[in-house]
Design a protein that fits this description.
Distance between the termini: 24 Å
EC number: 4.2.3.12
GO biological process, one term: tetrahydrobiopterin biosynthetic process
Radius of gyration: 18 Å
CATH class: Alpha Beta
Largest sheet: 6 strands, mixed
CATH architecture: 2-Layer Sandwich
Protein name: 6-pyruvoyltetrahydropterin synthase
Order of helices and strands: EEEEEHEHH
Strand content: 25-35%
CATH superfamily: 6-pyruvoyl tetrahydropterin synthase/QueD
Helix content: 10-25%
GO molecular function, one term: 6-pyruvoyltetrahydropterin synthase activity
Shape: elongated
CATH topology: Tetrahydropterin Synthase, Chain A
Number of domains: 1
Number of helices: 3
Structural class: alpha+beta
Number of strands: 6
Family: Belongs to the PTPS family.
């Protein structure tokens, strides 16, 4: 998936990874704590990357969907539920001046939450009524595109930074 420059500070979305766990077929025990938004920061040790600073956030959604009884999907062709865990990494070659961060973590978390709200607790067959196969890969791309659009909207409306070049929203977040 191509990286997309998201703000004037050179922040990029590196990737969105979704891990699908089919609720009906999972063999693992449920998590003792409910899913929540978490975050992490790290320095990349990869010598191939010229963007060493990374801020990662995580959120999850629960959906229902089918693959319209298509035989390629076997038993998953019928209606079933799934949980997607969405990890997003924002990367930059330098930290924002004055605050030393890649992006305001609150803003990043809020934006991801707003994007995921469209899909959480929804039947994706109704969200995408044209017979799309809403595979994990399809949803990863869709969420990625939605997040890029949201970030571009924030930057275009002057909400991607507070004027100090620090990557914060100044007002706590972008409008949906």
């Amino acid at each position: 998936m191509d990286s997309v420059v998201a703000t004037k500070e050179g922040i990029m979305i590196k990737s969105i990874l979704l891990f699908l766990a089919l609720l009906a077929t999972t063999l693992s025990k449920p998590s003792p704590t409910p899913p929540s938004t978490t975050s992490s920061t790290s320095l990349s040790s990869s010598s191939s990357s010229s963007l060493p600073y990374t801020l990662g956030i995580r959120d999850s959604i629960m959906i229902a969907h089918s693959f319209h009884q298509h035989p390629s999907f076997g038993p998953a062709g019928g209606m079933h539920g799934a949980t997607y865990t969405c990890d997003v990494e924002f990367i930059s070659e330098k930290l924002a001046p004055t605050v030393n961060w890649v992006i305001d973590i609150g803003l990043a978390s809020d934006l991801l939450s707003e994007v995921l709200q469209r899909y959480n607790m929804q039947n994706l067959d109704e969200v995408f009524p044209n017979g799309e196969f809403t595979t994990t890969e399809f949803m990863a791309r869709q969420i990625y595109l939605d997040l890029v659009e949201k970030l571009r909207s924030c930057v275009n409306h002057g909400e991607g930074g507070n004027g100090d070049g620090d990557g914060s929203s100044g007002d706590g977040g972008c409008e949906a």
